[in-house]
């Protein structure tokens, strides 16, 4: 049987006009800025108009530790939103925007898959409404103003060797990780070591996603630390008088984007930090607005629950005052067998032994959500045709031992209809009492917060500060940043900081090699292992298979 590709399915869909999608949510033309026929931005005044409306139930979709076998977290998020409408619930989806890095690299886009997609899929994966370009421009404007200040006499006494602000581009380009710029003589600037991050790792992206309005955005932008003086005092974007111009570049981008699923469920797609090197959640503005527009808001956080969910709960929920009603943990039998040591080319055959060895990965994520965070959870098994009843029953029994139900999800092939079982269980869980709590209290010190995450979420023996991290910790404490939450940059492929340790590893220590403050985002970034803030392209990048014909029809996106 021949299957249509994701992009072929999306291109055959008959979308509603975005004005009709908005109308069903009670949004007037005055609050909708159209970007063509099928996407638009929502006004800042809309939230104020909806201020007194009750908040929707907030549902977080997360997953097991990712593998090359695939899990389908975004697909499940989209399908669940559709499925809730199938059972008569008013749902709105809140997702991140895709980065061009994975689109042209190895992972693909972030619009879902099969018959559970947000559309227009090509637009969302390529440029969309220009938000990422605005974020990159604001980031690089600050870099330009910083270097220009030094060139023009350096009135702030900035030590070029202490500059922490890097340029960015939304593309996987390892060549730019470390560069020397300002060459060619005095009129071309001051020579110094520099580098690029991918745009989704920029602090501007984090600020953008955590800001509550333009005023908060400007205040956060002003607080960004770009480097230090020769006397060791921090220098901010506010000191450079850059926040106003940066906010001007971001003012339209800050408005949430409205699109729809294949089944016309409204979706707010806005912001896109990676969860392995940033906090991995869509914007606070979009989530809050989605919670006012519907009765159930389905959102997702990147990669496994040790990354995206931890940051969603410990950073985003703490900052925005959000409280999830239920958590969906997505898994596949194939991925669990891979965690059990089975090679990718053997995943299509029943292997209860490999599955049993891989199940501890799922069990650890479930326990973290239910025990550490005190939230009700359901495991969504993204079903593949090769899954056997014996394998599915083994997963059910294992989850039942933790008091958690399993719901089969077939939204990839059936759309919302394939997620009705999951939707009913989510609705039930949303009425269950919960005792939501954070992994660590705000008043705990930076090292102690790192230790809490490592021991309670990763199940490590502890944390080791290496290289410059001990001195950086001392300086951050001296500068008064110890009360901020911690954003751990870590490989997505393991609970540990070693991507080769699959399953549920034990007996390891997390090595933190760099600690820095994102004062605008208001969290501490801890870089562990060999994690990079600028990815590279694989040997055979997806870009080689993407094309456009003479009529402008794109192929090869997934």
* Helix coverage percent: 25-40%
Low-pLDDT ranges: none
Q: How many E-type strands?
A: 24
Beta fraction: 15-25%
Structural class computed from helices and strand pairing:
alpha/beta
Q: Cα distance, first to last residue?
A: 19 Å
| Helical stretch tally | 19
Shape: globular
- The overall pLDDT average reads 96
CA gyration radius, whole angstroms: 23 Å
User: Can you summarize the main beta sheet?
Assistant: 12 strands, mixed
Oligomer: single chain
How does this model look, in words?
By secondary structure, the protein is an alpha/beta fold. The chain contains 19 helices and 24 strands. Strand 5 (112-113) and strand 6 form a beta hairpin. It is globular, with a radius of gyration of 23 Å.
Task: Describe the structure concisely for a colleague.
With 558 residues, this protein is of the alpha/beta class. It has 19 helices and 24 strands.
What labels describe this entry?
24 strands; alpha/beta; globular; four-stranded mixed β-sheet; 35% helix
Layout of secondary structure:
Blueprint: H1 6-12, H2 18-24, E1 32-34, E2 40-42, H3 45-49, E3 57-63, H4 73-86, E4 91-95, H5 100-104, E5 112-113, E6 116-119, H6 121-125, H7 131-151, E7 167-169, E8 179-181, E9 192-194, E10 196-198, H8 203-210, H9 214-223, E11 225-228, E12 234-236, H10 243-250, E13 257-261, E14 266-269, H11 284-293, E15 296-300, H12 305-320, E16 326-331, H13 333-339, H14 352-372, E17 377-382, H15 389-400, E18 406-409, H16 411-414, H17 420-430, H18 446-458, E19 462-465, H19 469-478, E20 486-489, E21 509-518, E22 523-528, E23 547-548, E24 554-555
Parallel strand pairs: 3-15, 3-16, 4-14, 4-15, 7-10, 16-17, 17-18, 19-21, 20-22
Antiparallel strand pairs: 1-2, 2-13, 5-6, 6-13, 8-9, 11-12, 13-14, 21-22, 23-24
Helix pairs in contact: 4-17, 7-8, 7-10, 9-10, 13-14, 14-15
């Amino acid at each position: 049987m021949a299957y249509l590709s994701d992009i072929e399915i999306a291109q055959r869909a008959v979308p509603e006009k975005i004005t009709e999608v908005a109308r069903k949510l009670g949004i007037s033309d005055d609050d909708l800025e159209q970007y063509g026929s099928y996407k638009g931005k929502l006004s800042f005044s809309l939230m104020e108009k909806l201020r007194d409306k009750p908040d929707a139930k907030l549902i977080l979709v997360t997953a097991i530790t990712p593998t090359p076998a695939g899990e389908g977290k975004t697909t499940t998020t989209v399908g669940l939103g559709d499925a809730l409408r199938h059972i008569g619930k008013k749902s709105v989806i809140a997702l991140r925007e895709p980065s061009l890095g994975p689109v042209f690299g190895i992972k693909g886009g972030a619009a879902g898959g099969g018959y559970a997609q947000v559309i227009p899929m090509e637009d969302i994966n390529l440029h969309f409404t220009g938000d990422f370009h605005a974020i990159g421009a604001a980031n690089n404007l600050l870099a330009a103003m910083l270097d220009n200040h030094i060139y023009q006499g350096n009135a702030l006494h900035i030590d070029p060797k202490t500059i922490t602000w890097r340029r960015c581009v939304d593309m996987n380009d390892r060549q730019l990780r470390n560069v020397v710029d300002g060459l060619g003589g005095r009129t071309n600037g001051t020579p110094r070591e520099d580098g690029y991050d991918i745009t989704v790792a920029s602090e501007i992206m984090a600020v953008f996603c955590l800001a509550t309005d333009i005023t908060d955005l400007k205040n956060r932008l002003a607080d960004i630390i770009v480097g230090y003086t020769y006397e060791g005092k921090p220098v901010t974007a506010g000191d450079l008088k850059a926040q106003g111009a940066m906010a001007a570049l971001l003012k339209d981008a800050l408005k949430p984007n409205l699109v729809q699923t294949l089944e016309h469920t409204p979706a707010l797609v806005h912001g896109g930090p990676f969860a392995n090197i940033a906090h991995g959640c869509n914007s606070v503005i979009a989530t809050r607005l989605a919670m006012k527009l519907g009765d159930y808001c389905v959102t997702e956080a990147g990669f496994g629950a040790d990354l995206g969910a931890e940051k969603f709960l410990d950073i985003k929920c703490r900052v925005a005052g959000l409280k999830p009603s239920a958590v969906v943990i997505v898994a596949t039998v194939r991925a669990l067998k891979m965690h059990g040591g089975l090679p990718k080319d053997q995943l299509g055959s029943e292997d209860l032994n490999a599955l049993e060895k891989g199940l501890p990965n799922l069990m650890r994520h479930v326990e973290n959500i239910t025990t550490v965070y005190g939230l009700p959870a359901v495991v969504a098994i993204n079903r593949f045709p090769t899954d056997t009843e014996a394998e599915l029953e083994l997963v059910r029994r294992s989850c039942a031992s933790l008091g958690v139900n399993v719901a089969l999800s077939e939204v990839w092939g059936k759309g919302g209809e394939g997620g009705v079982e999951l939707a009913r269980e989510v609705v039930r869980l949303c009425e269950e009492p919960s005792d939501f709590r954070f992994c660590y209290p705000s008043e705990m010190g930076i090292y102690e917060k790192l230790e809490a995450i490592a021991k309670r979420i990763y199940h490590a023996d502890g944390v080791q500060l290496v290289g410059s991290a001990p001195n950086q910790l001392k300086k951050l404490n001296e500068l008064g940043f110890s009360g901020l939450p911690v954003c751990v940059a870590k490989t997505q492929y393991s609970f540990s900081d070693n991507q080769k340790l699959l399953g549920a590893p034990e007996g390891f220590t997390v090595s933190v090699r760099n600690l820095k403050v994102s004062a605008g985002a208001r969290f501490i970034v801890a870089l562990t292992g060999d994690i990079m803030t600028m990815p590279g392209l694989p040997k055979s990048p997806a870009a080689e298979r993407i094309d456009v014909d003479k009529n402008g029809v794109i192929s090869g996106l997934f």
